[in-house]
Design brief:
Layout: H1 2-31, E1 66-69, E2 75-78, H2 84-92, E3 114-116, H3 119-130, E4 134-142, E5 150-157, E6 162-165, H4 178-181, E7 187-190, H5 193-204, E8 211-213, H6 214-221, H7 228-236, H8 256-267, H9 269-290, H10 301-314, H11 328-342, H12 352-372, H13 376-379, H14 382-391, H15 396-408, H16 424-428, H17 431-436, H18 444-456, H19 469-473, H20 476-487, H21 489-509, E9 519-522, E10 528-532, H22 534-542, E11 546-551, E12 554-558, E13 592-595, H23 599-602, H24 607-610, E14 617-620, H25 622-643, E15 652-653, H26 655-664, H27 668-673, H28 678-691, H29 697-710, H30 718-725, H31 731-741, H32 769-773, E16 774-776, E17 782-784, H33 787-794, E18 836-837, H34 860-894, H35 921-930
Parallel strand pairs: 3-6, 4-7, 7-8, 9-12
Antiparallel strand pairs: 1-2, 4-5, 5-6, 9-10, 11-12, 13-14, 15-18, 16-17
Length: about 950
């Protein structure tokens, strides 16, 4: 009996092994494609999109052109949204009322649908839709066998009928539906419309105006999920197979399961939208009831917020991703990923050869995908590129084997999405790989030219199509520029350096993680107070001030009544979710924070106008950031002229040297002429320290004279130069410089001076002027020394340091400038070591006080004077108007298309603080009295 049992086990194991071998062989046969083609496969394979007579987004390197209606009502192309004004009207309209009238609709899906495949049927559909107040829309996209992808099917449902529009057969006639989708009086219901809106623009120049997105409604209602499958199951009791979304929607006829899936997606949307709107209205009613209708403006807040978020999606504009060099970003990603040890490749991949081959293969893949209108992953997978670059095969058979083995490791969720391996593109052009692997072929520009000419030139091996015919014609200028820069080595090197510098800048300074977490804070009555980041939520939770009500996305409910609400401040900005994209152009791959109000001004604003205010901090890509920064710098000069307050501190002088001079001479001019610009002083000192012995003698002497002006004309030492480096720096700048240079500017020994008579003066202490005035403790706090006593006599906060600020144009004409008055602590002891910076006096008023934490190398002193002047003359209303001016500068410079909803140039910034806030005015006023 035991032997029989053993025999059964052995037979079972053997059978399992045989079956495994059989299915593995079947899978391999199914995926493996013998490379037997001798010509391009496109000559024999007919792709559905080949029937398109024209395409709006071809595979060339030119930017996508959007529809524009000129004054003569003729259609032209542009890069602005053609219906921006209509959508803006919808966003600003506060009287929108939704009523789809589907309450009594039978939820049972109809067995029949209308298949629209001819132009006459399409025109009939357009006529039907014009009479509707609302209809539901969904789209199906195909991307595997297309470079940019295309819309393969559109599902449209009215209250009476379901329509399936064959957009492959009707691709060139879809503009018939354009007026219907752009009609602001007809509401279009989508679910998750972000991509659908862009796809309709890309393929048909169809722009959606007046949109209700059920996914946005779910966000407003804080639903646990916002997927369409969840909504279908919750409101309709219908289950769908979302894997069908990955099927090949190009095939005709479509399978029964795919047709049913397509009809289901749109059929129930109207009912779901009506249910969600009812809930939104109920929330509004509950709020009104709880507040006894004391806020009529809030009556439809939930409904309007869902509408506003939905129609904001309509403002998106499709754009093609254009790279400086074909395949550049993909190559950088692959190299970075695998050289960091994540790819598991052999050690030789760490050499330059691996990186070079990856870039060549990515360039070839990008061009082949454009020429053949295939996706990148269909042409050649990332795994295959790594394998080829690592092993460097020498025969065509080795190339095919390596690609096939690499692709076997790639899992696929849908059997229909498994591309053959190697792909027909590879099999048709295997000879290209021998060309790519040649050691002598090291220039990507040459690869670019050769491949284009070989495949699309006069004797090209690949057929022309509406997708690829423009690649050559629209890259001629690009190629010519490349060849010219190739002949001009310096120019090319400069361009290459600029590109690399930009990449390094992006890598170093761009945000490394999402800025907006879009976590929500609700009041105790369920009203949304604001969106914030995760840290703020955790702060409330740790202190027991709130409870967690949702974890995806995170949301808390406050256990106390906050001091203010968004509606109290007449501002909807803080109750909007925000996208992590550039607000100017929509760039998603990188972004930096940009402060619309320059920090040199904002840092001096009253806390009431800047604390917990993020309205004027936006995200910009590097290019938009550069434009905005340039505009801001120009406007700073305008501000400086308007207020008569120059941008830079032009003269600083060592006060101990100034005092020595004043004791030996009654001339005030001599004292001030010893001063020098803090920036010039630092540059001169740095140059002498680094390159002094190697400099031409005349240039070295010129720089020495600059530094000597600061020290009253006396001879200087190397220690004096080191001290001069930090003159005018804030404590933070000094710490950063010391850390960067790995040195300290605090000296314990006295300065060696050539003149013995000077040994007994204040310089014998051996400390720099800044070291005497600023003492930084272990915790980074700032302490003032003996000069503090005198400073407190002035304003109780800042050291009393007189300053003279002159415009750059006046540098060569400085005459008869007054020095520090005696009543401004001119009789300080020599050991106090404070820094004298000169401001002019006007109307006999006392000179402004200088904050020792404020850097003199930038615009900080200018910003403080401007803000002080505005506050004195116009109060806080003046600061608000000042902010509005800067917002207008930003808008005119960038023309932002992706600003968060609620952002406004006229934003007041008004804020009230709670009883326990450190910024509460009443609390601040009572603090001295209690003390």
């Amino acid at each position: 009996m035991e032997s029989k049992e053993k025999i059964k086990i052995v037979v079972a194991i053997a059978s399992f092994a045989v079956l495994s071998i059989f299915f593995t062989a079947q899978y391999r046969r199914r995926r493996y494609r013998k490379c037997t083609q001798s010509s391009c496969y496109l000559h024999t394979e007919q792709k559905p999109q080949n029937s398109f007579k024209r395409v709006l987004a071809d595979n060339s390197y030119s930017a996508f052109k959007h529809l524009k209606f000129s004054e003569s009502n003729s259609e032209t192309s542009s890069n602005s949204h053609p219906y921006e004004s209509e959508i803006s009207d919808l966003l600003e309209n506060a009287e929108i009322e939704f009523s789809f009238g589907t309450e009594g609709t039978d939820l049972k899906m109809r067995d029949s649908y209308v298949w629209v495949a001819t132009e006459s049927q399409l025109k009939e559909l357009a006529d039907v839709l014009r009479k509707q107040k609302v209809f539901a829309v969904d789209t199906e996209q195909h991307s595997l066998r297309s470079f940019l992808g295309f819309t393969a099917l559109i599902q449209i449902s009215t209250q009476n009928e379901d329509y399936l529009v064959d957009t492959i057969a009707l691709h060139d006639a879809m503009d018939v539906l354009r007026p219907v989708f752009a009609n602001p009086s007809i509401c279009k219901v989508f679910h998750g419309a972000d991509n659908d809106v862009l796809w309709l623009q890309r393929d048909f120049h169809i722009y959606v105006v007046n949109l209700f997105d059920t996914a946005k409604a779910c966000e407003v209602l804080s639903k646990p999920q916002k997927s369409l499958a969840y909504l279908l199951e919750t409101y309709c009791g219908v289950a769908t197979n979302k894997l069908l979304q990955r099927e090949d929607w190009r095939q005709r006829p479509l399978s029964i399961e795919m047709l049913e899936y397509a009809q289901t997606d749109a059929h129930y949307l109207l009912h779901i939208a009506n249910c969600l709107i009812a809930e939104l209205k109920q929330h509004d009613s509950d709020i009104d009831a709880s507040e006894n209708s004391c806020c009529p403006d809030d009556k439809f807040r939930f409904v309007l917020e869902a509408s506003r978020r939905s129609n904001t999606v309509c403002l998106q504009l499709y754009s093609k991703e254009i790279e400086t060099s074909p395949g550049e970003s993909a190559a950088s990603s692959i190299v970075s990923r695998h050289l960091n040890g994540q790819g598991g490749i052999s050690s030789k991949s760490c050499k330059l050869q691996f990186q070079n081959l990856v870039r060549r293969l990515c360039t070839w893949r990008d061009l082949m995908a454009r020429v053949h209108d295939e996706s990148l992953r269909y042409v050649l997978s990332d795994h295959a590129i790594v394998a080829l670059a690592d092993k460097v095969p020498t025969t065509q058979e080795e190339i095919c084997t390596l690609i096939f083995q690499a692709d076997l490791n790639v899992d696929s969720l849908s059997s229909s999405s498994i591309p053959p391996s190697p792909s027909p593109v590879v099999c048709s052009h295997l000879e290209d790989f021998n060309y790519l692997f040649q050691d002598k072929m090291g220039k990507l520009d040459d690869i670019f030219l050769e491949i284009l000419q070989k495949h699309l030139g006069p004797d090209g091996s690949c057929p022309l199509s509406v997708f690829n015919y423009a690649i050559l014609s629209k890259t001629n200028l690009r190629l010519t520029n490349r060849l010219v820069s190739k002949q001009n080595g310096n120019k090319k090197l400069k361009q290459f350096g600029q590109r690399n510098s930009r990449e390094l800048f992006v890598k170093k300074f761009s945000c490394k993680s999402p800025v907006y977490h879009n976590c929500r804070i609700f009041a105790s009555d369920g009203r949304l107070l604001c969106y914030c980041d995760r840290r703020k939520l955790e702060w409330y939770l740790r202190r027991g001030l709130a409870k967690l009500v949702d974890d995806n996305p995170l949301a808390i409910m406050l256990l106390f009544e906050p001091k203010g609400r968004p509606e109290d401040e007449d501002n909807d900005f803080y109750v909007q979710s925000k996208k992590n994209i550039c607000v100017g152009c929509g760039e998603k791959n990188h972004y930096l924070r940009y402060r619309i109000i320059p920090s040199c001004y904002r840092m001096h604003f009253p806390e009431l106008l800047k604390s917990h205010r993020s309205h004027d901090i936006v995200l910009l890509c590097v290019d938009c950031h550069e434009v905005a920064h340039s505009a801001a710098e120009k406007y700073k000069k305008k501000i400086a002229t308007e207020f008569g307050i120059p941008l830079f501190v032009q003269k600083v002088v060592d006060p101990r040297e100034a005092q020595v001079e004043s004791q030996s001479s009654t001339s005030e001019v001599n004292t001030v002429e010893a001063g020098v610009s803090p920036l010039q002083l630092r540059i001169a000192a740095m140059a002498l320290l680094r390159h002094g012995p190697r400099m031409p003698s005349d240039r070295r002497e010129e720089l020495r004279q600059t530094v000597m002006k600061y020290y009253g004309g006396r001879e200087i030492t190397e220690e004096d130069l080191e001290k001069a480096l930090v003159v005018g720096m804030s404590p933070h700048e000094r710490r950063r410089l010391e850390k960067k240079k790995g040195m300290s500017f605090k000296h314990s020994k006295g300065t060696s001076l050539p003149n013995k008579e000077q040994d007994g003066n204040a310089r014998s202490t051996g400390t720099s002027p800044i070291d005497d005035a600023f003492k930084v403790d272990n915790e980074g706090g700032l302490h003032t020394t003996k000069g503090e006593t005198c400073g407190k006599q002035g304003n109780g906060n800042d050291l009393d340091i007189t300053m003279e600020v002159l415009d750059r144009s006046e540098m060569s004409e400085m005459k008869d400038i007054p020095v520090m008055d005696a009543d401004d602590c001119g009789s300080r002891s020599q050991s106090e070591g404070t820094l004298d910076v000169f401001y002019p006096k006007s109307n006999g008023k006392a000179s402004p006080k200088h904050n020792p934490k404020l850097s003199l190398l930038g615009h900080g002193p200018h910003g403080k004077q401007v803000v002080d002047h505005v506050l004195k003359e116009y109060g806080e209303d003046g600061i608000r108007q000042f902010c509005q001016r800067w917002r207008q500068v930003f808008v005119e410079a960038i023309h932002p298309r992706f600003l968060p909803a609620g952002w406004d140039v006229m934003h007041s910034g008004r804020r009230e603080f709670g009883e326990f806030s450190v910024h509460n005015r009443a609390k601040k006023a009572s603090a001295p009295a209690n003390g």
